[in-house]
């Protein structure tokens, strides 16, 4: 039926299931420290989030700093786990085990940043 096709497309868009042809491809690099619990959690969290939200529009490189310490300096990584979003621009870094899904989505520019994600501003007492 012709009438059900637009409704199905609209429903898919509302559920975030449709991929637009001009959707950006994400290039991500996750720096971890061996197989510590925090590193394992970060890998699981970012893979699950990418599979759910980016629908195959991403490349994820996991860098173990014990195996490749020379990779830290070019990306200016000082703590792990750290996720580096190279593309799409602007590049960003997200530090931690990536368990705060809203913070990660905002850091990847997949949802608008709001007051709960932004750093607090200096407020003057009245």
How would you summarize this macromolecular structure in one to three sentences?
The protein is α+β, with helices and mostly antiparallel strands. It has helices at 4-14, 37-53, 72-75, 101-107, and strands at residues 26-32, 58-64, 82-87, 92-95. The longest helix has 17 residues, at 37-53.
The name of the CATH architecture of one domain is 3-Layer(aba) Sandwich
Find the CATH topology of one domain: Glutaredoxin
User: Are there runs of 5+ residues with pLDDT below 50, and where?
Assistant: 1-19, 120-126
**How far is the first residue's CA from the last residue's CA?**
62 Å
Strand order in the sheet with the most strands? 2-1-3-4
Helix content: 25-40%
CATH homologous superfamily annotation of one domain = Glutaredoxin
Structural class estimated from helices and strands: alpha+beta
**Helix/strand order:** HEHEHEEH
* Helix segment tally: 4
Characterize the structure shown.
The chain is α+β, with helices and mostly antiparallel strands and 126 residues long. It has a domain at 24-107: Glutaredoxin. It contains four helices and four strands. It has helices at residues 4-14, 37-53, 72-75, 101-107; strands at residues 26-32, 58-64, 82-87, 92-95. It has a four-stranded mixed β-sheet, with helices on one face. It is globular and about 35 Å long. The chain starts with a helix and ends in a 19-residue tail after the last helix. The model is unreliable at 1-19 and 120-126 (pLDDT under 50).
Topology (SSEs and partners):
Blueprint: H1 4-14, E1 26-32, H2 37-53, E2 58-64, H3 72-75, E3 82-87, E4 92-95, H4 101-107
Parallel strand pairs: 1-2
Antiparallel strand pairs: 1-3, 3-4
């Amino acid at each position: 039926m012709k009438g059900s096709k637009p409704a199905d497309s609209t429903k898919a868009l509302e559920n975030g299931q449709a991929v637009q042809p001009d959707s950006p491809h994400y290039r991500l690099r996750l720096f971890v420290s061996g197989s510590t619990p925090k590193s394992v959690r970060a890998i699981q969290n970012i893979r699950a989030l990418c599979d759910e939200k980016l629908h195959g529009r991403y490349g994820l490189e996991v860098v173990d700093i014990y195996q490749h310490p020379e990779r830290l300096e070019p990306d200016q990584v000082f703590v792990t786990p750290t996720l580096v979003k190279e593309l799409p621009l602007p590049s960003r870094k997200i530090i931690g085990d990536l368990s705060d899904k809203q913070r990660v989505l905002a850091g990847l520019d997949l949802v608008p940043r709001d007051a709960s994600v932004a750093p607090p501003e200096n407020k003057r007492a009245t």
